[in-house]
Q: What sequence folds into this?
């Protein structure tokens, strides 16, 4: 009994040690990012330090002088549209692949997702420029579907495959159609998978840089592109350069 108890305690200790090791790097980066935003410009030329007089002038200048709120809204609209459309199209597709064992279609979707995004860039740009859709929400949303739609499909296939088929059969015996069974029975059972797919798709769409850099413009510039503008040749504007140095 003592040996079993010691083994459980050791496993628990190792588990929490592993959790700490995995959590410390991202938490440190996040804290460092916040501290960087709270420093004045001249502080970034000195050695790293954690004791300083914080200021909110950097954040105020970013939103007032650089219209960063508009870039946030652009990213929110594009990522939200891409995620929503991906769920509407991807959930039935994933259900069909899982229900009817359409492995070849799933493989084609996986290959499309694995293809480097840069290979899509030139055709998309030529098409959207010809149609006059460059610097529009429509163009960016369509291009982001290349990222989000396959992700939703492949994440949801596993959830649909793990769902008992007897529940659908019982619903259809009670008079439900295939569509009613899918909407009323299936989707509520896989709501955790839907939430997971939506969150991951939104994050990947929000962080997409390449498509936004080429296809966006003054009206649809997103946050990653706006942040990239603070990097110039031989310099990174850690604090807003418009602020006077003390």
A:
């Amino acid at each position: 009994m003592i040996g079993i108890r010691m083994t459980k305690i050791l496993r628990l200790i190792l588990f929490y040690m592993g959790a700490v090791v995995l959590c410390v790097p991202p938490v440190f980066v996040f804290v460092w990012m916040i501290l960087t935003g709270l420093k004045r410009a001249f502080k970034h030329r000195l050695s790293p330090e954690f004791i300083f007089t914080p200021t909110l002038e950097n954040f105020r200048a970013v939103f007032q002088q650089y219209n960063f709120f508009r870039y946030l809204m652009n990213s929110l609209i594009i990522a939200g549209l891409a995620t929503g459309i991906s769920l509407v199209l991807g959930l039935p597709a994933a259900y069909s692949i899982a229900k009817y064992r359409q492995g070849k279609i799933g493989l084609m979707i996986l290959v499309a997702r694995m293809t480097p995004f840069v290979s899509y860039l030139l055709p998309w740009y030529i098409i959207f420029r010809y149609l006059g859709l460059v610097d529009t929400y429509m163009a960016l949303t369509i291009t982001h579907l290349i990222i989000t739609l396959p992700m939703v499909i492949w994440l949801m296939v596993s959830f649909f495959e793990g769902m008992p088929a007897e529940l659908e059969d019982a619903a259809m015996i009670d008079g439900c159609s295939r569509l009613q069974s899918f909407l009323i029975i299936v989707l509520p059972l896989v709501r955790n998978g839907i939430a997971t797919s939506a969150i991951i798709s939104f994050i990947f769409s929000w962080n997409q840089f390449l498509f936004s850099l080429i296809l966006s413009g003054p009206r649809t510039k997103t946050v990653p592109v706006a942040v990239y503008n603070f990097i110039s040749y031989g310099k990174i504007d850690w604090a807003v350069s418009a602020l006077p140095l003390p």
User: Anything to note?
Assistant: The radius of gyration is 24 Å. Residues 242-246 have pLDDT under 50 and may be disordered. Strands lie at 231-232, 235-236. The longest strand covers residues 231-232.
